[in-house]
Amino acid sequence: MAKTVLSVNAGSSSVKITFYAFKNPPRAIADAQISGITAPPTALKYQRGSVKHKEKLQEKLSTPQDAFKYLLKRCFSDPELSEVASEGDLAYICHRVVHGGDYPDSVEINDETMSHLEKLEELAPLHNFSALEIVRLCRKELPSIPSITFFDSAFHHTLPDHVRTYPIDQQVAKANGLRKYGFHGISYSFILRSVAEFLQKPQEKTNLIVMHLGSGASICAIKEGKSIDTSMGLTPLAGLPGATRSGSVDPSLVFHYTNEAGNLSPASTKEMHISTAEEILNKKSGWKALTGTTDFSEIAVENPPSEAHKLAFQIVVDRILGFIGNYYVKLGGEVDALVFAGGIGEKSAMLRRTLSEKCKCLGVAIDSQANDKGPEDDETVKDISKGAGKGPRTLICQTNEQFEMAYHCNRARS
Ligand SMILES: Nc1ncnc2c1ncn2[C@@H]1O[C@H](COP(=O)(O)OP(=O)(O)O)[C@@H](O)[C@H]1O
Ligand SMILES: CC(=O)OP(=O)(O)O
Ligand SMILES: [Mg+2]
C-alpha cells in the first residue's frame, strides 16, 4: 500500500501541494508552492522538514496544470525525498475545490461526479477552473491514483433556509442553483476542530465567530459546531472586501460602472467564460483598486503611506465589524471565542488590536504583548485574551486547508 497522500490547493494565481504520511494525524513530509502563475515573476517555495528553499523560476508556467506538473516533478526528483519518488508512492490525491454546489461532503472523482462538477464550473468559473484543470490532469496522467475533491462550500450545508435563500423568484433560483453557499469551509472545519480541542469542549457545544482573512476573506458564525451563517454567498465575491474583490456592493452598481457589464470579459478563454462585471468586481477591486497593492501588510501599518491606505484599512475594519455585530446577535451573545485566521488574521497584530478595541462593548479584551507576538510557527491555536474576561475569548488559529483534507481522507480510508 502506498504510504503518502497528496493535498492540492489551487488558486487562480498559485498552486500549493503538500505530501502527508498516510496515517492519522497526517504528518507533513514536504510542501511546495508556485505563485505568480498569472502575474510573473513565477516563484517556487519548497520545504522538506527543516529545509526551506525559495527561488524565482525562469520556466514559463502559465497554467495551473503546468505549475502542478512542475511541482510534482520537482518533488519526485528530490533524492532526499525518498518517500515520494513516483506515482506508486501515492495512495490518494485530495483537491480543494471552492464551489461544490449541493455536495454536503467530499466526493471521489469518477465519470459521474466529474461531469457534475463540470456543470458547476459554469456557476463558479473564476474559482473552480484551476482546481478542476488539475483534477483533469491527474485523471489523465495519474489514472491509478484516486482523486478526492473537498469543497469549501460543504461546511455550510447546515445553513438554515432563511439564511441560504435569496429573496428572488424561487423558480428561477431553483432552476439555476441561485442561493448562498458560503466558502472557506475546509478552513472553518480545521479551525472548529482545533479550537474546540484547545477549549476542551466538544465541537457540538462550541459557538464561535471565525474570521478567515486572506486575499479572499470571509466570516462564519458557528453555533453548536454548525455553520449558521457566513459572509460569502453564491460565489466568494459577497461579503468582505478582498485583495482584488469588492465584497458586497449594491448589485445595481455594475450597470452604472460599465455599459459592457454583461459582455464576455476579454480575459475569457474557450474553456472559461466570465463577464466583464465579474472580472471587474473579482479581479480589479478590493484594496488593490484603492491603494495599488494586494499586500495587506502595507496597509495595516501605524503610519500609512497614503490617505488611500488609511481608507482601505478603515473599510476592511468597518465591514468586518458589521458581521461580528450581526453574528454576535444571531448567536444570542453566547460566543466562546472570536477567532482570527488566514494570512491577515494570523499575521496582522494591528488589525486584531483595532477590531478588539472596537468590540470592547462585547466584553472582548486582548493582551497586547501576546497579540504583538502572535503564534509560534508550530502553535496551531494561541489565546491572546486578557485574563478571564466577561466576553468571548480572542484566539488566533493558524489554519491549514491541505492538512484538513488529508486528515479526513486518511480517517475515512486508513
Ligand atoms: N504581517 C502581515 N500583516 C498583514 N497582512 C499580511 C501579513 N503577512 C501577510 N499578509 C497578507 O495575507 C494575505 C494572504 O493570506 P493567505 O490566507 O495566505 O492567502 P490566500 O487568500 O491567497 O490563500 C495577503 O493579502 C498578505 O498581504
Ligand atoms: C473561497 C476563496 O475566496 O478562496 P481564497 O481565499 O483561497 O481565494
Ligand atoms: Mg486561501
Description:
The structure is a single chain. Helix 6 packs across helix 14. The strands form two sheets. An eight-stranded mixed beta sheet has the order 5-4-3-2-1-6-8-7, with helices on both faces. A six-stranded mixed beta sheet has the order 11-10-9-12-14-13, with helices on both faces. The chain has helices spanning 64-76, 111-120, 125-141, 161-164, 170-176, 185-199, 253-257, 276-283, 286-291, 307-330, 342-347, 349-358, 368-373, 401-413, and strands at 4-10, 14-21, 27-35, 43-48, 51-56, 90-97, 107-108, 147-151, 208-213, 217-223, 226-230, 337-341, 381-383, 393-397. The protein is built from 14 helices and 14 strands. The chain is of the alpha/beta class. The chain has three domains: 4-151, Nucleotidyltransferase, domain 5 (2-Layer Sandwich), CATH 3.30.420; 201-247 and 286-401, ATPase, nucleotide binding domain (Nucleotidyltransferase, domain 5, 2-Layer Sandwich), CATH 3.30.420.40; 248-284, no CATH class. The chain starts with a strand and ends with a helix. Bound molecules: adenosine-5'-diphosphate, acetylphosphate and magnesium ion.
